[in-house]
TrEMBL record:
Keywords: Kinase, Transferase. The lineage of its organism: Bacteria, Bacillati, Actinomycetota, Actinomycetes, Micrococcales. It comes from the Bacteria. This is HipA domain-containing protein. Belongs to the HipA Ser/Thr kinase family. GO terms for cellular component: cytosol. The keyword Kinase applies. InterPro entries: HipA-like_C (IPR012893), HipA_Ser/Thr_kinase (IPR052028). Residues 155-357 form the HipA-like C-terminal domain.
Length: 394
């Protein structure tokens, strides 16, 4: 038996039927709608799905992986189901309201996994309590609470506990501290990174932190306004660098390929260089392909705002997920040599001006982190990394 799901996207603020997924028990295929293919403004939903008629397989690599849950979402979905779910079941299981980008799935005229599943800010303490239980691997968790958390999770990448949340009618992403594994205030430092990047001209999402009381303890929660929605709620097509390069989750990748796609797609490689430099300075080691993305703007794929940038102490090394010219041991000098500047299309005068702008901002990072709730220990943890960054810039 074959199940048929309609797939829609947004073109020029209008939601259109793009094609259909045909799913059997063990496999699936996608086929573009003929009317969509005839449109002059039609675009590939993913580079792996060329604009031509006929069925295209969804295995072994799912071209719609950005619509599937991240590592955290998979953990929650599998827990809610009480078993390990297959890839397409996981993808269709993401709540439609919080699904990433503009790709949506429909069955029998209704959005797949639709419903009012996105909580409001006042619900977060209860949501975080259940997230903590799942992170700790507890077995006695209320099924209703797990399903509620399941409806709040989305498809934005990463293993960190998180949930979509409504604030004033807008869709935001709330990222939680882990009950086990966060040795310092990770959320305060991530917020500080966004503050600093925004100061030096790197595009970042609107963000804020709040202290939420959970089980008698105050926790720092980072809120990010969803950048794949317009101010009036229209969905914006999005693909991660992983999807752009037809890679699989977990592949580190290379800046060479990301820059190549960005240039071909109409994005600004200079903005990529700024992000790479900043990430090398602060030890953003977990800079894999799913942590970079592109938004559809007109007829081009523009860089999305930067996200998931987290510093690591110097003791954790400089081995990045995303390599440069095959080398994953990266520092500031990796991106300031002639070959790197030529790759990103950055003039030496522009590079020097940016590095000059970075000096006072790096020095101010502890102040940014403290403003978001970082305690003395959390600040001291990053002292070695920030001293190394200041030395590299001097």
């Amino acid at each position: 038996m074959t199940d048929v799901y309609e797939v829609t996207t947004v073109v020029g603020r209008k939601e259109l039927l793009a094609g259909r997924i045909y799913r059997t028990r063990t496999s699936g295929a996608f086929e573009y709608d003929s009317d969509y293919l005839r449109r002059r403004d039609a675009f590939e939903l993913a580079p792996a799905l060329g604009l031509f008629p006929g069925a295209q397989p969804l295995q072994p690599t799912n071209p719609f992986s950005d619509s599937a849950p991240d590592t955290w979402g998979r953990k929650v979905q599998n827990r809610a189901a009480g078993r390990q779910l297959d890839e397409l079941t996981l993808m269709f299981g993401v709540n439609d309201e919080g699904r990433q980008g503009a790709t949506r799935f429909w069955g029998d005229g209704a959005a797949v996994t639709s419903g009012n599943g996105v909580p409001v800010e006042a619900d977060l303490a209860d949501i975080i309590h259940v997230a903590d239980q799942i992170e700790r691997g507890e077995t006695e968790i209320d099924d209703v609470a797990v399903r509620r958390l399941f409806r709040a999770t989305g498809s934005l990448g990463g293993a960190r506990p998180k949930a979509n949340v409504k604030i004033g009618g807008d869709l935001w992403l709330a990222k939680f501290p882990k009950p086990v594994g966060d040795d310092w205030n990770v959320m305060a430092w991530e917020a500080a990174m966004l503050d600093a990047m925004g100061t030096v001209g790197i595009d970042v999402p609107q963000h804020l932190t709040k202290r939420v009381l959970v089980d008698g303890s105050e926790r720092t929660v980072l809120f990010l306004r969803r950048f794949d929605r317009t101010d009036d709620g229209v969905r914006i097509p999005y693909i991660s660098a992983m999807t752009a390069l037809e890679a699989t989750d977990g592949e580190g990748g290379d800046w060479v390929d990301v820059v190549d796609f960005a240039q071909l797609a109409g994005s600004d490689p200079t903005q990529l260089w700024r992000r790479a430099v900043f990430g090398a300075l602060v030890g953003n080691l977990d800079d894999h392909l799913r942590n970079h993305g592109f938004l559809r703007r007109g007829t081009a794929w523009a860089l999305s705002p930067a996200f998931d940038v987290n510093p690591e102490p110097v003791g954790d090394g400089n081995d990045h997920q995303l390599a440069l010219l095959g080398n994953s041991e990266l520092g500031l000098d990796s991106f300031t040599g002639k070959d790197a500047l030529d790759l990103f299309g950055v003039r030496p005068t522009v590079a020097n001006a940016f590095l000059e702008d970075l000096r006072p901002v790096v020095a101010a990072l502890p102040r940014f982190a403290a403003a978001h709730g970082a305690d003395v220990f959390s600040l001291e943890v990053m002292t070695s990394r920030l001293k190394a960054a200041e030395a590299a810039l001097s």
